[in-house]
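Sequence and structure are kept together here, with a separate record for every protein. An example record follows, reproduced without changes.
>
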Amino acid sequence: MGTSTRSGLRADAARNRELLLAAAVRAFTAESRGGPATTLDGIAKDAGVGIGTLYRHFPNRDSLVEAVYRNELDRLCAAAEQLRTELPADQALRAWMDRFVDYVITKKHLADSLHALVACGHNPFTQSRERMVEAVRLLQQAGVADGTLRDDVDAADVLVGTSGICMAVADPQAREQAGRLLDLLVDGLRPR
């Protein structure tokens, strides 16, 4: 038996799960850009594991899509704490916003599959907004404490502003413009 990870999976099983999730993101991204239809077998091959390993983790395509979405959300939210410890708070918030753009791009590539999940009665978005607002709030509180961010802005408003930029500059090729707009948003959050 291998060593268990924090998630309760053996280390090799956890590694395989991560490989499968990464391969799924690549496959769904390629598919949404007009590439070939994503197959579970193709995802397993790209991850370097057998199809049985994929099915042990994800019994069907819907469970894989939901796991990809939740994994991306988990990574986004966990990044707030990591960035807070590595950078001044205003820079940490700006770096988190870049990760938010990546999250939105991935979510866009999963859009059709996520809509199908919702149509089947699954809600992968449960608590997503609350978790993201909490991540922004963590960074804002650090910024208020170190004097780099204003104390009169609601975290939910910052998230809406960041989302609005992502919607206005929805094309991944417009990443540079999105960065400039995010810089403006963060500048508006600094004390005068």
